[in-house]
Design a protein that fits this description.
The termini are far apart. The chain has helices at 8-11, 16-30, 37-48, 54-65, 67-76, 89-104, 110-124, 127-143. The protein has 144 residues and is mainly alpha-helical. α2 packs across α6 (89-104), α5 (67-76) crosses α6 and α7 (110-124) runs antiparallel to α8 (127-143). The protein is built from eight helices and no strands.
Length: 144
């Protein structure tokens, strides 16, 4: 990591919501880049003076590692005729992060993953996308 990255103790002294927001942004950036999450985190520190939490980087790595399974789960819960390629990039990044947490993070209740994804969608998307995200994640939760 670059010299701009703060000590692990300082960069993890932020709210879980902020850590999740950082993870979402990394997942969004991964949609446009082949760079690995560590490199994207370094770039954030260099370009924006934003110091990403270990949680954010770990989640982005997890999303990348399990993307095939995550996308299959999302695709399975879409309405007939819909394909994952039809989902906006912002919504897809939020869905991937939330589904990753639901499937692979035992330390986070499913309801928290859904609620946080919905809250982030209110900040970064339009109302219709928020309802869509909530519906897909609700279907994923029922399948679990």
């Amino acid at each position: 990591m670059s010299d701009n990255i703060m000590s692990s103790e300082n960069r993890n002294d932020i709210s879980r919501y902020k850590m999740r927001e950082q993870a979402f942004i990394l997942c969004f950036e991964m949609l446009f880049s082949d760079a690995d999450p560590d490199e994207l985190a370094d770039n954030a520190g260099d370009a924006r003076d934003e110091f990403l939490s270990d949680y954010a980087v770990a989640c982005a790595k997890g999303v990348k590692e399990h993307q095939e399974e995550i996308d299959a789960m999302i695709s399975d819960k879409l309405k007939s005729g819909w394909k994952i390629t039809r989902i906006s990039k912002v919504s897809l990044a939020l869905l991937r992060l939330a589904v990753y947490e639901m499937l692979y993070r035992d330390d986070i209740p499913v309801s928290v993953s859904i609620n946080e994804a919905v809250e982030l969608s209110k900040k970064y998307t339009v109302e219709e996308d928020t309802s869509f995200i909530n519906g897909v994640l609700g279907s994923v939760a029922k399948a679990l």
